[in-house]
Amino acid sequence: MYKHLLIATDGSELADKGVAQGLTLAKDLGAAVTFVTVSEQFPIFAWGGAMAGYAAGDELAVYQEESRRYGKEVLDKCKASADAAGVTAKLVHVEDKRPAEAILELSRTQGCDLIVMASHGRRGLGRLLLGSQTAEVLSYTEIPVLVVR
Fold first, then answer.
1. Buried (b) or exposed (e) across 123-133, using 16+ Cβ within 10 A?
2. Taken in order 36, 39, 41, 45, is the CA torsion positive or negative?
3. Is the CA virtual torsion 94, 121, 1, 86 positive or negative?
4. What is the DSSP string of 46-64?
5. pLDDT in tens, the chain (149 residues)
6. Which of 19, 20, 17 lies closest to 8 in space, CA to CA?
7. How far apart are alpha carbons 134 and 119 in whole angstroms?
8. Are strands 89-95 and 145-148 parallel, antiparallel or unpaired?
9. With contact defined as beta carbons under 8 Å apart, do 18 and 117 qualify?
């Protein structure tokens, strides 16, 4: 059935449920897994003020360093879970992209045949205001998506 799962995570408690479901499925199917976490671009609106260029440069460096540190932390936790389950896993941290865009691109380049991700299941105004990376992935993917709530 599925041979290569892409499991997306942001390290949140909800995303951990998606990781657990994805690993259980991968183990049952004997499938390989690629874990992905995505760090979005530095927010441009933070560049205001008289010292914008100088301050933003420092803030950008701190943001990138913290994003890399957090991404490694999230992926190391996923790798430990995969190792404990006996599942072969690859780790990918994508920087400076929107999560849905990175997930879709990586699923194609890695030859994945299923995407696993969590969703709050927001509707209406909550979804409009907060956006939904899961909804975007569902709209544009060419492969099945397992959404964990």
1. eeeeeeeeebb
2. positive
3. positive
4. GG-STTHHHHHHHHHHHHH
5. 999 999 999 999 999 999 999 999 999 999 999 999 999 988 766 555 555 555 567 888 899 999 999 999 999 999 999 999 999 999 999 999 999 999 999 999 999 999 999 987 666 555 544 458 998 999 999 999 999 98
6. 19
7. 6
8. unpaired
9. yes
In 3D, which of 9, 47, 4 has the Cα closest to residue 26? Answer: 4
Cα separation, 136 vs 145, in Å, equals 11
Length of the chain: 149
Task: List b or e across 95-112, with b for residues whose CB sees 16 or more CB atoms inside 10 angstroms.
Answer: eeeebbbbbbebbeeeeb
Q: Is the dihedral of CA 146, 30, 72, 64 positive or negative?
A: negative
Which SS3 state, helix, strand or coil, does residue 17 take? helix
What is the pTM for the complete model shown? Answer: 0.87
Order of strands across the sheet that contains 32-39? 89-95, 32-39, 4-8, 114-118, 145-148
Rounded distance between C-alpha atoms, residue 147 and residue 18, angstroms: 8
